[in-house]
Amino acid sequence: MRFDNKEFKVDSVSDISIATLCTHTSLQIFHGAKNEGFKTVGIVESKRKWFYESFSNLIDEFIVLNNWRELCRYEVISKLRELNSLLIPHGSFVEYVGLDCVMGLPIPMFGLRELLVVESNQHRKMDLLSKAGITIPKSYKIGERIEGTVIVKLPGAKGGKGYFIANNTSQILSNVNELMRKGYIKDVDDVLIQEYVVGVPAYFHFFHSPVLNRTELLGMDIRYESNVDGLRRLPPSASIDVNPTFNVVGNLPLVLRESMLLTVMKYGINFVNITKSEVPPGIVGPFCLESIINDAGDVVVFEFSGRIVAGTNIYIHGSPYSWLYWNEPMSMGRRIAREIKMAVDLGKLNYVIT
Ligand code: AMP
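^ thats the input. predicted complex w/ adenosine monophosphate below
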């Protein structure tokens, strides 16, 4: 679905306000938008406003909410329209605002809105990766006999929160029942049970440009997760019996062996192509393939994100890879703004918004 809103009138870049929720990667998005000559609108929860106000150089207007779900209220939508806003979804967007609100929001959005629906279902997500010919971990149905160790994932972008490791079916069933009792899961089929891949994590940041008709590998990172990354700090003599957990607390930079880039780039291109056929008109802008690289050098992708990921915050001044394409500081936030700018200049705005 292409966005068709007669009220969204654009003759030049300065007519558009780049808007996003003040969280996740918003500072980077605003910074990039400013660098490319856009106005910016920060949609902020009242309790966080003091922090974002200290970046008055980056944010021109605030829309203040008591909680994120107010985004879909009539007055908020009217204000966004009045400011001729173009929304940039990021990793926390659907999680905080809710899929129903985002899908029905009558505001143009950068990227492929329909992909958010696929992203909200972990099974559909893995299916899309598999159809793209990308190596993925083995997955199991609830109750099925598992081989080896698995990671059990809850629905939604929770930054790894609530995930657990299991070695047998009964352990999975009792933990899932407990999570259902606490209301973290509505339906047992919502959980994803995946082979736990042993290796090193590597998360690849891509940008697909419909304007230039090319896919760029703009950077990569490693997530720093508590407590799994802390466990190795324990001396071998420690006898603490703790289960690994996967709460993301930050991100670390990474460059890859150059010979591995070919596989990664091929995955990125395959992913773009599969979205063109399965979720037309196909992905626009940032996406991330999240992998574990095992000791055989296989890049096993356990997850994708169809929008800007928090790991790109490392590279507000550009990454080693973004320099190869752009030869200037190019963050993912700025790359988004650059694509919109090029689309406006070439009369192709409908290529990049839905
Ligand atoms: P996710 O929410 O799918 O991005 O996963 C959160 C974290 O769990 C990742 O950053 C990894 O550290 C870990 N993880 C997820 N899936 C796997 C897997 N199949 N094998 C090993 N580790 C995984």
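Residues 79 and 224 are 38 Å apart (CA to CA).
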